[in-house]
Specification:
The longest helix has 18 residues. This protein is of the alpha+beta class and 175 residues long. It is built from three helices and ten strands, in the order αβββββαββββαβ.
Length: 175
């Protein structure tokens, strides 16, 4: 009577699969951050500060790594038909932010956030001798501009990049 090796092969395959998919660092637990005008997911361990205009999360007090959402009023309601004009204005605003921090816009793109077009900018700059990277995503809805911001030590983004991606993917403006 010959034994089939399938149980052994499947056991080895399952062990290898488990080692490759989660054998490293566990993903950090997340939480839902809610504010009056929006919500998003963020790492559970990050410290949260709230203001009238938004929410900022930091890995630890005083560290440059952060996530934030800030809400600004628009003078006129935004309509998707105005996208081309909005992009030109947002490109100028991003260049202005980069100039203020003596940095440069390293990348720009139109992306989808909360089911609609948004504009994303990656900036590079130095502060107190540290190289930093910053991603700003502008989300325009009706009479509000939502500014999603992430900051990290450059060039390595690591888990901050994952948190930044989570912010953009989970962001929801209030109805």
């Amino acid at each position: 009577m010959s034994r089939k090796p399938w149980p052994l092969v499947l056991g080895i395959a399952a062990t290898l699969l488990a080692a490759g998919c989660g054998g490293g660092a566990k993903p950090e637990a997340t939480r839902l951050v809610r504010a009056a005008r929006f919500s998003f997911r963020a790492p559970q361990s990050w410290q949260i500060d709230r203001s009238v205009r938004g929410v900022t999360l930091t890995r630890k007090r005083g560290a440059p790594e952060l996530l934030s959402v800030t809400v600004f009023p628009l003078a006129r309601p935004f309509r998707p038909a105005l996208w081309r004009e909005a992009v030109a204005e947002l490109d100028r605003a991003a260049a202005g932010v980069a100039a203020q921090v003596h940095g440069k816009v390293e990348a720009r793109a139109t992306v989808t956030v909360a089911g609609a077009r948004a504009r994303r900018y990656d900036l590079g700059f130095a502060r107190n001798g540290e190289k930093l990277g910053e991603r700003i995503v502008f989300v325009l809805r009706r009479r509000r501009e939502y500014q999603l911001l992430c900051r990290w030590h450059a060039p390595v983004r690591g888990d901050v990049e994952a948190a930044c991606d989570m912010l953009s993917a989970s962001f929801r403006p209030a109805r």
